Amino acid sequence: MNKAYPSEVKFSFLTTVIIIFIILTIPAVRVLYSGSKDTYRIIENKFRVFNQIIQYVNEYYYEDIDMDKIWNGAFHGFMEKLDPHSVYIPPKKQEEIDEIFRGKFQGIGIEFDVLEGYITVIAPVADSPSERVGLQPGDRIIEIDGEDAYGITKDEVMKTLRGPKGTSVDLKIARIGSKPFEVTIIRDVIPIYSVRAALMLDDQTGYIWLTRFTATSSEEIRNALKKLDDSGMKRMILDLRNNSGGFLEQAAEIANMFITTRDTLVYTIGKHNNTNEVFLAKPSKGRADFPLIILLNRGSASASEIVAGAVQDLDRGLIVGETSFGKGLVQRQFGLRDGSAVRVTIARYYTPSGRLIQRPFEDGNTRQYYAELYKQNRETIIDSLKELRPKFKTRNGRTVYGGGGITPDEYIPWELKLQKSTQKLIGNPKRPLFNWGTMFVSQNTDSLENYEDFRDSWTIADDQFDKFLQHLNELEIEPDSTEWVTDEEYIKNIIKSEIAGAKWGKDAQWGVRLMTDNQIIESLNYFDKAEEFLTVN
């Protein structure tokens, strides 16, 4: 009599589960595919083969296997063979995604890092409990509910500081130049903003940086526009660089904010009627009282391309930057019983002129699909193939192109090339630039009065930069004097932006940092062209 090993017992149970799964699933498949006997036969045969594969692997593989990992791999592989954007999402990852795209969670509301063993406030979230009790950049949380917080991990921070709305947490705060003090923070719903910055670049140019399209994005854009209007905005840049997309409905809603004609904004075509949609602009929601520039790069995808495509096709504004990602497929997410989900491509979307801007892809070759984005000569290749791409006409008769992203009206390449040592400095986990900036503010707060004057004319003196270098030595960060000379002005600007952020908040921080962004600076030269669209429309 053969001895039963644990793997055989496990296999017996697994086989039973799979057989039951097949028995339960095949009738459903038969109904679903009753119009195609070949499809049903293929599915039935593949289930049997798959069962055999699991049997042999489970029985003969030379060591114990993680069945969770195996099944997840199978799910990923199945979805990957459809297209690069149909994916399987495991339960834990799905929780994170849900939180981001709902645009809120519950907690105290800080952007933080763990520096020198303590939770350090990088910035309080706007209108959060942390901001309301007066937490500031650079504050360290040294106790949580009476317990020493030294050595805490980022995962532990999430567990201790997040919690249901209305619950409280007692913190002891160490602040530069002050004695430690205690605060009680009542947790609340914390918004996760998709508008990263909304500010005036100068006395007439408004700037909005949208990082993704979540459930709250259109409301955030409306609030940002009101803020800029109140600040005297006469023209605007909408920055969609590296915005990988999000909700289709939000993209249409945001596009509508700039369209005052009753036109199609975007439409979708899929296999079923319920995946075919047309989004029409409501003129009463739109504005055409200022010239608009939309800034794209190769990381701008999906919903970003829908907004840019509508603005370009309807001749409302100027598209500048680099050719966008090229994602013209629409996904719908379906939840699964274990908390995981599949995101399935259900349709293609088309811009108002009829363009499909999806890049070509080879099934299952996701690596190559994404690798194409990082080719140094990508724009040259795209331009050389332009005549082979399908051509369309905008509302006013300009030629635009389908078949691979939104081609900008004005090409502005990204030109920042930092030395490796500079990149290491900026990404250093000790955050030396942030730390020095917050210390500078605590010691010089009275001399920092007006943000606009600071942005336009303040510079770091040589003796101050020497103190920064001394700070690096104290943190045991060795400066590379030969490489840093090349990037010194950039490093000084980053320090200046950290000072602005610590003193006046995130918008001020980005207002300073964008002063060295060549794509932003060059975009300002094209507002005359952007303004021409207002006279035509």
Question: Can you characterise this structure?
Answer:
It is a single chain. This protein is of the alpha+beta class and 537 residues long. The protein has 4 domains: 6-65, no CATH class; 104-191, PDZ domain (Pdz3 Domain); 195-337 and 345-415, 2-enoyl-CoA Hydratase, Chain A, domain 1; 420-516, no CATH class. 42% of the residues lie in helices and 20% in strands. Strands 3, 4, 5, 6, 7 and 8 form a 6-stranded antiparallel beta sheet that branches. α1 runs antiparallel to α2 (37-60). The radius of gyration is 27 Å and the shape is globular.
Distance between the termini: 88 Å
How is the biggest beta sheet arranged?
Answer: 6 strands, antiparallel
Low-confidence blocks of residues: 1-35
Count of separate structural domains: 4
CATH homologous superfamily heading of the largest domain: 2-enoyl-CoA Hydratase, Chain A, domain 1
List keywords for this structure.
disordered N terminus; 6-stranded antiparallel β-sheet; 2-enoyl-CoA Hydratase, Chain A, domain 1; 4 domains; Pdz3 Domain; single chain; globular; 19 helices; alpha+beta; 6-stranded mixed β-sheet; 21 strands; 20% strand; 537 residues
Task: Give a concise summary.
The chain has 537 residues and is an alpha+beta fold. Helices cover 42% and strands 20% of the residues. The protein contains 19 helices and 21 strands.
Write the layout of secondary structure elements.
Elements: H1 6-32, H2 37-60, H3 67-80, E1 87-89, H4 91-102, E2 104-107, E3 110-115, E4 118-124, H5 129-132, E5 140-144, E6 147-148, H6 154-161, E7 168-174, E8 181-186, E9 188-191, E10 195-200, E11 205-210, H7 217-230, E12 235-239, H8 248-256, E13 264-270, E14 277-280, E15 292-296, H9 303-313, E16 318-321, E17 329-335, E18 341-350, H10 366-371, H11 378-384, E19 391-393, E20 399-401, E21 410-411, H12 420-426, H13 432-444, H14 451-457, H15 462-474, H16 481-504, H17 506-513, H18 518-523, H19 527-536
Parallel strand pairs: 11-12, 12-15, 15-16, 16-21
Antiparallel strand pairs: 1-18, 2-9, 3-4, 4-5, 5-6, 5-7, 7-8, 10-11, 13-14, 13-18, 17-18, 19-20
